[in-house]
């Protein structure tokens, strides 16, 4: 899969632009062949790239949620440009829970460790995720039993800095099968570069290191 496949994706100011984590999760979604004729949720949709990929892969229905009205508007326009139907809504994980369950859930959630207050719907909410990078990830794990239908699956991408093994262990304790299915070491993007000194000071990053491992976790409901 190449990024040119997503030429229909345009990103408005203040909306998270697809980057290495987006491409990796799209590749896994493509390889797993999970979504044909399925009801799919894309939570923390951003530009809508994952929701649109699911629709292009033959999903029966795709809902996309984001707390940012700008992201939801961007997703709607991108879906129209791609010629697919995506029901994009402003909402939280709790709102997605009400709309569930889903056959497939995909998510590229905020996962960057940060001491920035989690307020409003500005662009930083696409990456800031509390001191351990797990504010949204932990909620996603907690709500998984309501979000994922019996026999359904979930794909989550996050960084080594937000403790993917904890995601796996939490979901296994909740009765799911969970495992790492893809990794990729990438150079820091703009966000991580801007946070690097802060992460070094917190002891989360070795001095001078400017690469991270991205991890996709697949979750299957028994």
Structure, described:
35% of the residues lie in helices and 25% in strands. With 222 residues, it is an alpha/beta fold. The chain has one domain: Vaccinia Virus protein VP39 (Rossmann fold). It has a 7-stranded mixed sheet with strand order 3-2-1-4-5-7-6, with helices on both faces. Helix 2 (49-56) links the parallel strand 1 (39-43) and strand 2 (61-66). Helix 1 packs parallel to helix 2 (49-56), helix 2 runs parallel beside helix 3 and helix 4 packs parallel to helix 5 (135-147). The chain is globular and about 45 Å long. The two termini are 30 Å apart.
Mean pLDDT: 93
How are strands sequenced across the largest beta sheet? 3-2-1-4-5-7-6
Helix share, percent: 25-40%
| Count of the separate structural domains | 1
Give the SSE string.
HEHEHEHEHEHEHE
Structural class label? alpha/beta
Q: So how many helices?
A: 7
Number of strands: 7
**N- and C-termini, Cα separation:** 30 Å
Q: Could you give me the name of the CATH homologous superfamily?
A: Vaccinia Virus protein VP39
Shape: globular
Q: Specify Rg, calculated over alpha carbons.
A: 16 Å
Q: Roughly what fraction of the amino acids lie in strands?
A: 25-35%
């Amino acid at each position: 899969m190449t990024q040119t496949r997503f030429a229909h994706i345009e990103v408005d100011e203040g909306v998270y632009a697809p980057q290495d984590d987006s491409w990796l999760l799209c590749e896994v979604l493509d390889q797993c062949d999970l979504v044909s004729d399925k009801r799919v949720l894309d939570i923390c949709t951003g530009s809508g790239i994952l929701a649109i990929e699911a629709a292009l892969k033959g999903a029966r229905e795709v809902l996309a949620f984001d707390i940012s009205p700008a992201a939801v508007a961007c997703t709607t326009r991108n879906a129209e440009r791609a010629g697919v139907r995506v029901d994009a809504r402003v909402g939280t994980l709790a709102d997605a829970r009400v709309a569930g369950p889903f056959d497939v859930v995909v998510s590229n959630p905020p996962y960057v460790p940060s001491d920035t207050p989690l307020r409003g719907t500005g662009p930083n909410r696409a990456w800031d995720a509390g001191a351990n990078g797990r504010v949204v990830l932990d909620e996603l794990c907690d709500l998984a039993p309501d979000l994922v239908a019996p026999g359904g699956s979930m794909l989550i991408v996050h960084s080594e800095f937000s403790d993917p093994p904890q995601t796996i262990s939490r979901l296994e304790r909740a009765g799911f099968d969970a495992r790492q299915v893809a990794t990729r070491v990438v150079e820091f993007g703009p966000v991580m570069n801007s946070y690097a000194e802060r992460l070094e000071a917190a002891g989360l990053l070795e001095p001078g290191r400017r690469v991270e491992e991205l991890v996709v976790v697949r979750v299957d409901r028994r």
